[in-house]
């Protein structure tokens, strides 16, 4: 039920994405997307910023001091953000910058605050945005939702929504054109992460490409759901086309949090500080594991050498993601549905199709050492990981990509499918978290990781373009 009322946005975020509105400050070399965080005193603005981007434990928000002046926070995720945490008395005039500079306004209202004051303030900003920046994305976080019982929560949420709409309609029917999105949020559960992720999606120009990569990955890896997460904030940057259900999102978020917590316990002998310095891609959250895995990379190229391409799609990375049970035809890897009758050896190797990359580690791209060890706990509670990593060398760069997995026991019924939750670091700050049927994970592990290589390549290309635009624009 929560999923139904947590956000009132009706159409796809893709349709609502405003034009790229970025500004470079004199002290900053990158152009940042600006987000305005507004609301009355003690509404929870600073808590939201600190919990999401500073890893502040929710309980410690109690000790935050009142914000006396505007504080600008720089956040580097898939797009560079500048979040303005404003004091309660900020007005359009005292803001010190035109609203046209901002891409999004997030207005925070305490869910128990049904009085006029917050609604008047919100309406003031909506009216000003209408004339200054009609493309701005207006988001209302009805916050501290966990404080109320389910029925009261829904009722208060409805009332706040209704009062804002009525007030705008009373002023002028033209304000109805302003698209307002309401979200129920709390720092004490995952609703805040889910809501902020949805806000972020409207700002990511490259979202359709990331989504397409995820769609292709899911289709070819038999994954029912995959997320691309920002590892530090645990916001999901993109997901595949299947609907997001809160339970799955929460599970993936928890797994990421657990990996973030346990990551520092793992250390690789091969990943010496000098190597990590050389790479410039140390992974602060999940350093590589203690064991020494596999041989050192020998090829100077990070690109897998499989010469697989397709004329059907514009992205080489998309084309190259292989399916479970692939066959090589005319130099292409093309999908063939896995046939149960195909004889396989204990490693899942198909005897009928020697060219299949799905079955063995050795058939994976030769220049990437793929070693990842999964942990099968037989429980749905994520346990400390036994991560692995992929090491890839690009020119003089030595890149480490930790990976981990845990199996989740099917809840009930003989027909229930056991699922494995997998984690693969994709870029310095982005990770792919996917649900994979355990049977597929065990039997087609090589292929899965093969697909991850191409997925990673696609995402890195997109991030490079984004960086180039922001840096040069
Ligand atoms: N129950 C609950 N309390 C919250 C939540 N978020 C924030 N709080 C509490 O609300 C209080 C105010 O939080 P702040 O983040 O300082 O609020 P603010 O809007 O920045 O306040 P000002 O700086 O005065 O404008 C703190 O005691 C927080 O612990 C939430 O989701 N649930």
Automatic annotation (TrEMBL):
Keyword Ion transport part of the UniProt annotation: no
Stretches with biased composition (Polar residues): 1-15, 273-284, 318-329
InterPro entries: Gtr1_RagA (IPR006762), P-loop_NTPase (IPR027417), RagC/D (IPR039400)
GO CC annotations, alphabetized: endomembrane system; fungal-type vacuole membrane; Gtr1-Gtr2 GTPase complex; nucleus
Region described as Disordered: 1-26, 273-397
Catalytic activity: GTP + H2O = GDP + phosphate + H(+)
Main localization, broad class: membrane
One of the record's GO molecular function terms: GTP binding
Residue ranges, compositional bias (Low complexity): 299-317, 342-368
Any one of the GO BP annotations: cellular response to starvation
Keywords noted in UniProt: GTP-binding, Hydrolase, Membrane, Nucleotide-binding
A Pfam family matched in the record: Gtr1_RagA
Compartments, as annotated in UniProt: Endomembrane system
Protein function: GTPase involved in activation of the TORC1 signaling pathway, which promotes growth and represses autophagy in nutrient-rich conditions.
Subunit text: Component of the GSE complex.
Family of the protein in this entry: Belongs to the GTR/RAG GTP-binding protein family.
Name listed for the protein in its UniProt record: GTP-binding protein
Source organism of the structure: Cyclocybe aegerita
């Amino acid at each position: 039920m929560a999923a139904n009322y947590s956000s009132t946005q009706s159409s796809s975020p893709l349709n609502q994405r405003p034009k790229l509105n970025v500004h470079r400050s004199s002290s900053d070399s990158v152009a940042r997307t600006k987000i305005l965080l507004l609301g009355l005193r003690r509404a929870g603005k600073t808590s939201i910023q600190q919990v999401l981007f500073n890893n502040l434990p929710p309980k410690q928000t109690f000790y935050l001091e009142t914000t006396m002046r505007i504080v600008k926070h720089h956040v580097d995720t898939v797009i560079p953000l500048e979040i303005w945490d404003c004091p309660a008395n900020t007005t359009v005039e005292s803001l010190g910058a035109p609203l046209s500079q901002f891409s999004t306004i997030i207005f925070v209202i305490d869910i128990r605050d049904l009085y006029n004051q917050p609604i008047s303030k919100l309406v003031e900003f909506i009216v000003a945005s209408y004339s200054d920046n009609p493309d701005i994305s207006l988001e209302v976080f009805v916050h501290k939702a966990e404080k109320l019982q389910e029925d009261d929560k829904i009722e208060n949420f409805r009332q706040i929504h209704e009062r804002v709409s009525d007030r705008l309609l009373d002023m002028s029917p033209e304000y109805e054109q302003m698209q307002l999105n309401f979200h129920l949020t709390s720092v004490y559960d995952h609703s805040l992460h889910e809501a902020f992720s949805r806000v972020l999606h409207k700002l990511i120009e490259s979202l359709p490409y990331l989504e397409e990569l995820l769609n292709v990955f899911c289709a070819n890896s038999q994954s029912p759901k995959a997320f691309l997460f920002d590892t530090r904030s645990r916001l999901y940057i993109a997901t595949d086309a299947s609907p997001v259900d809160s339970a799955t999102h929460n599970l993936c978020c928890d797994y990421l949090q657990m990996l973030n917590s346990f990551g520092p316990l793992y250390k690789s002998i091969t990943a010496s500080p000098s190597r990590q310095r050389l790479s410039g891609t140390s992974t602060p959250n999940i350093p590589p594991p203690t064991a020494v895995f596999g041989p050192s990379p020998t090829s100077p190229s990070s690109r897998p050498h499989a010469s697989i391409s397709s004329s059907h799609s514009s992205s080489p990375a998309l084309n190259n993601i292989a399916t479970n049970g692939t066959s090589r035809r005319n130099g292409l890897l093309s999908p063939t549905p896995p046939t149960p009758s195909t004889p396989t050896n204990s490693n899942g190797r198909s005897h009928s199709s020697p060219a299949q990359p799905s079955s063995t580690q050795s058939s994976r791209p030769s220049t990437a050492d793929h070693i990842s060890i999964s942990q099968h706990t037989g429980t749905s509670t994520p346990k400390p990981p036994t991560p692995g990593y992929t090491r890839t060398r690009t020119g003089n760069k030595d890149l480490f990509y930790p990976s981990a997995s845990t199996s989740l026991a099917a809840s009930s019924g003989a027909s229930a499918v056991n699922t494995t939750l997998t984690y693969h670091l994709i870029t310095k700050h982005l990770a792919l978290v996917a649900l994979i049927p355990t049977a597929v994970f065990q039997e087609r592990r090589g292929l899965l990781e093969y697909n991850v290589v191409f997925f990673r390549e696609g995402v890195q290309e997109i991030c490079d373009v984004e960086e180039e635009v922001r840096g040069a624009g």
